[in-house]
């Protein structure tokens, strides 16, 4: 709801049909109390979305002044979260949507991936004996200061935070 309200603020009431108003741009220095970004991907089971998600995380957090080590850790961890969302939730099925939330505040960054909850039986990725599965949580935990997940009736959100010890400039 709040997102739709924010979008309406940028659309002039007298804009002609089909006109696309220019969204305002913000520089990192113009923001107080941290900076937030989020993007919604229509995924339709396409694992190539993970590449775009990694790039979005690196670009945003780099623009916010986070160091190379934090960028590498965030990129690896978000790859795991996004891949899991596509493989194991309805977000990876036809018509699926996944949302990426990024937050940067000082030396702390937070990344969350929201998916559409449990996958329907059709098109599941079965686990075969001997296959590599189950290491994603370990990877995220090794990259992050904190991580977790929570569910609602219709969504699952997996998140992590990284606290940088180096001084940001």
Number of helical segments with 4 or more residues? 4
Structure summary, number of beta strands: 5
| Through-space gap between termini | 35 Å
Measured by DSSP, the beta-strand proportion falls in: 15-25%
Q: Compute the average pLDDT.
A: 75
CATH class of the domain at 35-118 and 133-163: Alpha Beta
* CATH fold type of the domain at 35-118 and 133-163: Heat Shock Protein 90
Any low-confidence stretches, pLDDT <50, length ≥5? 1-32
Q: Which superfamily, in CATH terms, is the homologous superfamily of the domain at 35-118 and 133-163? A: Histidine kinase-like ATPase, C-terminal domain
CATH architecture level-2 label of the domain at 35-118 and 133-163: 2-Layer Sandwich
Q: Can you summarize the main beta sheet?
A: 5 strands, antiparallel
Question: Given the C-alpha coordinates, what overall shape results?
Answer: globular
Order of helices and strands: HEHHEEHEE
In percent, how helical is the residue content? 25-40%
Strand order of the largest sheet: 1-2-3-5-4
Structural category: alpha+beta
CA-based gyration radius: 18 Å
């Amino acid at each position: 709801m709040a997102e739709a309200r924010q979008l309406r603020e940028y659309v002039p009431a007298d804009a002609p049909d089909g006109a696309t108003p220019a969204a305002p741009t913000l520089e990192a220095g113009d923001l107080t109390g941290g900076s937030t970004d989020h993007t919604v991907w229509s995924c339709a089971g396409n694992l190539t979305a993970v590449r775009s998600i990694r790039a979005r995380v690196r670009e945003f957090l780099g623009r916010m002044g986070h160091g190379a080590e934090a960028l590498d850790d965030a990129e690896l961890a978000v790859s795991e979260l996004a891949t899991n969302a596509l493989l194991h939730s309805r977000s990876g099925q036809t018509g699926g949507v996944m949302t990426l939330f990024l937050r940067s505040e000082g030396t702390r960054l937070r990344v969350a991936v929201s998916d559409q909850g449990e996958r329907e039986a059709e098109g599941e990725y079965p686990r075969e004996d001997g296959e590599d599965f189950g290491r994603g949580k370990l990877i995220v935990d090794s990259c992050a200061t904190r991580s977790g997940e929570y569910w609602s009736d219709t969504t699952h959100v997996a998140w992590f935070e990284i606290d940088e010890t180096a001084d940001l400039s």
